[in-house]
Structure formats: C-alpha cells, structure tokens
Protein: Arylsulfatase
Amino acid sequence: MTMKNNVFFTLKLSALLTLLCSMGTLDIEAQNKPNVVYILVDDLGYGDLGCYGATKVKTPNIDKLANEGKMFTDAHSASAVCTPSRYALLTGQYPIRGNNGKGIWGPASVPSELLINTEQITIADVFKNSGYNTAALGKWHLGFKKGKNDWQEPLSPGPNDLGFDYYYGVPLVNSAPPYVYVENTHVVGGDAKDPLVFVGKGKDKEVTPITPIPPEASQRTVNMFKGAVKAHKLYNDYTVGQVLAGKAVDWITEKTTNNKKNPFFLYFATTHIHHPFTPGTNFQGKSDAELYGDFIQELDWMVGQVTSTLEQQGVADNTLIILTSDNGAMLNLGGRNAVKAGHKINGDLLGFKFGVWEGGHRIPFIAKWPGKIKPGTVSDQLICNVDMLATFMAITGQDPNSLDNSDSINVLPAFIDNPSEPIRNELLLAPYKATHLSLRKEKWMYIPAKGSGGFHGSKPNHHAWGGAPAVNFVGGKNSEMENGKLKETAQVAQLYNLEKDKYQTTNVYSQFPEVVKEMEAILDTYRPKK
Structure:
C-alpha cells in the first residue's frame, strides 16, 4: 500500500470514527454526498461579470448562479500567476512550498515536468477517497512526466496520477504550444507514424501549421512542435470553448446516467478568458467590450451548458457549483481594448495579473448549493483558493485537521452560514517576483517592496502591461505614483488598510511602524531559508 493510500485509509477511518462518536450511527445525509462542480476561469477579473458590476458584457448564466447562491467580495487566489495558483488550489499548499521549497512563481514552461508530487493529497484525492467519480477538463498547465517533458507518450505522470479518473483538455494554455488536446496520457488524434515532436523556437519552417488569428486577438506563442498533423487540425482556437463545454456536458451526462450510485467531482478549468481572444462565430461582435467581452460572453454560454445539463439530469439540487478565477485580469492588448470601450476588467481594484496589488489576486467567487447556501447572499469573509482542500474534506465528511503541512482552512461555514468572526485572519499572497511575496493580516496588506512585482510594460507594442503605467492607463490612483511612474519619493515598502482603502489609493507604510514590524516578522517565517 502506497503512502497516499495509507493516508486515504487513515482519513477514511478518522472520518468514520468521528461520525460514529458524534452521532451514534451514520447520518443518512452524510451518505447523500453532493456532487461538486468547480469551474476555474482563466484570467477572469473582479470586474468582468455582471453580478460584480460589469455593464459592457452580459453574463446571465453566471449572474443566475450568484442570484441563487452566494457571492464573495474578499476571495483571493494564493498567487497572481496561473500555474502557482493552480498548484495552491489542487494541493492546499501555498505555492512557495512547491519545487522543493524554492517556490513556484511563474507559468509552467513547455518542457515542464509534473509540478505536484504524486504522493501529495489533492482535491481530487479527497473526492476519490469518498467514493466520487472525478474528472479534470480544460487547461492543465501543471506539467507532465518526471524530469524534462519530452512529449513522448504516455504523458505520465499527469492528472490521472493526482486523483482524476479522466482528463481531457489543453495541456498548457491556449497561448502556448503544443496546440493539441490531450486525453488522459495521449495526444488526441495522435499517430505513431506522425508523432508530436518538440523542436523549440526558431524552427518556423519545420513546425506544423496552426489556426491563423488576427493581431487584435492578442499574443499567442508560435508553435514549437512538428508532426502530429491530424492532432493539430483537431485543435481550432475558435472552437475550444465549444469542445470543452461539450466534454463537460457529455461527462456529467454519462456519470448521472450510468453511475448514479456515485457522486461526482468535476474540475472544469476553462481556457477562457485567457488570450488569445478567439470567440466562436456566434459570439463575435456580440458584447460592448471588443473581443475580450465577446470571450466573456462565450464563457457565460459554457457555464450555461453545464448548469442546464445538471438540471436536465435531475442532479442540480444536490450539486455544489463554485465559479471563480485563477488570478486577476491581465492588461494585454485585448484587455486594453476592452478598457478603451469602457469595461473595467478588475473593477476599481489596483493592479493586474502577475502583480501583488489587489487586482492581481482578488477574484470573483460564487458558490451555489441548493438547500445549503442561502440564495442571493454576499459574504465579506476572507477566503482563498488554497482553502478548497480542507473545505472539500469537510463537505465529504473527512477531518481537515488530519492534514499535515497544509495551508488550507475549512471555510465551509462561510458557504452555508454567515459567521460573525473571521474564519481566516492571515493569508500569504504571491506575485511573479519573489521579492514581492506579501502578507494579508486582517485589514492590513503588507508588500515589502515598491511596485507590484508583476508585469511592467507600457508601450503600445508591449504585450503585458503592469505597474504604474498600467494603473495610469485605466485611470487608477495611488499615492506612490504620478503620471504613470513611481515617484522618486516612493517609500521602500507598502502598507494598506483595506478596511478603509479597498482600492489601495494611499500607502500608509510610514504611519504604522509597529504594524510593519509585526507583518515583516510573520512574512519572514514563510520565506525560503537560504
């Protein structure tokens, strides 16, 4: 029996003993476990949905989820970057603990190995341990295989080794090769006579052609693979949303038709609304926020496909649906065009994806659970995606306190009730740059350096805008900036009172030295030791 199986047995026995001791016999409701659908959107900003204040896009299906469930106003991703954020979600650990304690800071590269140890407990393992069918659909971006990934099949270890019965999706992201689908451990449409071969950059004449897209769709990395012609033809940027939504519908339908005895967990990680912005034909030109807004509206349709399938299959009343994002919105070309059209991608929050200001990691978070979560409610509890591991353990009758070396906190009370006291008082928040690893403690946000620690582009030809120039572009205000630049008098670090200043307009670092001292001491306990 492996270490992971030993842990499974211990957790299962612990949960059983807890229930027996507290109830005398197993509660009937404990046996009727809810299905769980976790929809993780890519780069969805705090201002990108109607229910969070957007007026230039229409999101009726997502707004309905909010009306029938609970919206969170102080939810965060543990990182403002896609790969480390997903690491935190799946493992219940801050991404600084990954990579043997060196931390995971940036997006996984094309040849990246699997970044999660297969012996680690994941959210999928939690559900498997409780008798669930499990699937991961969509964007993966956490690597495959051990050591350097040469992309030779089978692509293992991967999602199937982390508790997911089934995987189908985009192996990295829609802006980076390989531009193919992967199903479990194999390339969809793969051919042993025409294998997928990684050739690297600068081999434009060798690589397999991919879907042409216009410049206004925003950046997409050139292909770095040759071969697998059929597999590449199956991947069309303009139909990815349709393909992934269809897979979600098919999987839910199959599990609720042929596997009625077992509940299910679906991790649906969309490539929307990450660049390039390539909405399907039916959605092009339909929003008031350029291609960026069209992509959001296609995302909303995808969500509607999932929710309507749950209803049609008669399982909606016993399903917890969570919709959230991996990080804040990015001010790329598509985002800038949307801003010019009057759309506030991160609302009035300061900053963007990759940076540690609130716009980089404060995210939409909606939870609907009929009969458990009161409809039309709003919570200001501080929660994080790293908390899902412990929360899912609680939902499935397992003991979150049995976890070792976990940063995950059970926030189920914030879902089903309205606690008067904070469930989480402290939160570690990571941007792209390790120098800006920051700490949230109650009302205070401490950043131990100048700037955001993220992107810093400012020219029309730059793909990734960030920092003071980006804040200036959207009309934001901050006491350390002037005319799109940091002032020469900018303080060495930043402290914000989010209770009074949610939008981080005023750095009060010099006014509260004792708070800074306390925050710095706590933060130092998290930093990697040299």
The CA atoms of residues 29 and 397 lie 10 Å apart. The mean pLDDT is 94. The chain has one domain: 36-526.
